[in-house]
Amino acid sequence: MSQAEPQSPAQHQRGRLFALLGVVVAAGAISYCAYWVVHASHFVTTDNAYTGTEVAQVTPSVGGTVSKVNVIDTQEVKKGDILVEIDSIDARLALQLAEAEYASAIRRVRGMQATDSGLAAQIAARDADETRAVAQLQSSQADFERASIDLQRRQALAKSGSVSGDELTRAQNAFASAQANLIAARAIVGQSRANKSSATGSRNANLAMIDNSSLENNPEVALARARLDQAHIDLDRTIVRAPVDGIIARRQVQIGQRLAPGAVLMAVVPLASMHVDANFKEGQLQQVKPGQQVELTSDLYGDEVVYHGRVVGFAGGTGSAFSLIPAQNATGNWIKVVQRLPVRIALDGSDLARHPLQVGLSMNVSIDTRDAK
How far apart are CA 195 and CA 205, in angstroms? Predict the structure, then answer.
């Protein structure tokens, strides 16, 4: 049996290097496993993420012709800044008309209030006329009864010859006159009552317009005041102002353009309230919960600038579910595709102030899931 040949120094050195490499690889694998278990397994990341914000649409509330446009695309504006001015001639004329109608309504109501006092006095006068007419009727009734008795007596005495023909004639004339006066008195009472009823009806009709209301809360005045307030608002709305702080985008309005209410003039992008929509794979979201802390970097600034944020919530469905033609997996030729669910992340305002972002920029997202509970 031949004896093993001794290893040369080069072979011995090579063996030691391989052994050292194995130790290094094993140590690296153990370190990576320890790093994964202790730290990396608690983070989920994606580069399928983009900035977004709630863009404010600028639309006019009144129609008219554009007389001035004060902004251009990319211009920064503050809330309340004047963006567009609409020709205000029509609105000013409408305001003047509303002011005239309001003043007229006040005068009409004041006239109704004054008329009510006059109609009340008329009713009192008609009531006095009725009282006087009733008294006259009672007097005529008494005269008629007396004339009737006198006539009856004269007729009885005339049969015995105790009364002359002239005296009987005078009694008959007195009776006829008393009877006529009684009929006239009754007519006067009826007329006075009719006059009183007419005056009462007129007052009731006038009172219906002002009853239980003062000058300020009268319905007619309130209606005219509402129209006047609307005219003031319409005049103010000929000045279109920025609804939020932000950057002008998609300006579509030009001087001389005829606008209709609700037409889109431009958009204001509020960069200070930026968020990120991160599209995670469905298998990454088991431990992701709202409120968890997030670190983000952008392709615009690179890894040197780190943004901080928190998970706000999850979209109601995957991107494919809301696509124009949703995937239909009911056919036989089906291939499973991993879906992505948008996760909204709110960014820290101080980070955005130092390093502003624009809508649609790519972001790299890392969510800390250690506070998953």
Answer: 15
The correct answer on CATH 2.40.50.100 for the domain covering 56-88+238-269 is: yes
C-alpha to C-alpha distance for 77 and 84, rounded to whole angstroms: 13
91/18 Cα distance (integer angstroms): 91
Question: What count of residues does the chain have?
Answer: 373
More confident residue, 85 or 152: 85
Lowest mean pLDDT among 28-32, 84-88, 223-227, 292-296: 28-32
- Three-state SS for 346? strand
> Is the confidence at residue 34, as pLDDT, over 60?
no
What is the chain's mean pLDDT, rounded?
82
Per-domain residue ranges of the chain: 56-88+238-269, 91-233
What are residue 263's DSSP bridge partners?
none
Are 267 and 250 contacting, i.e. CB atoms less than 8 angstroms apart?
Answer: yes
Whether domain 91-233 has CATH 3.10.560.10 = no
Closest CA to 273 of 299, 315, 250, 245: 245
Q: Which helix (H) or strand (E) holds 260?
A: none
Residue 258 pairs with which residues in a beta bridge? 65
pTM above 0.70, yes or no: no
Query: Which is nearest to 241 in space by CA: 225, 221, 265?
Result: 265
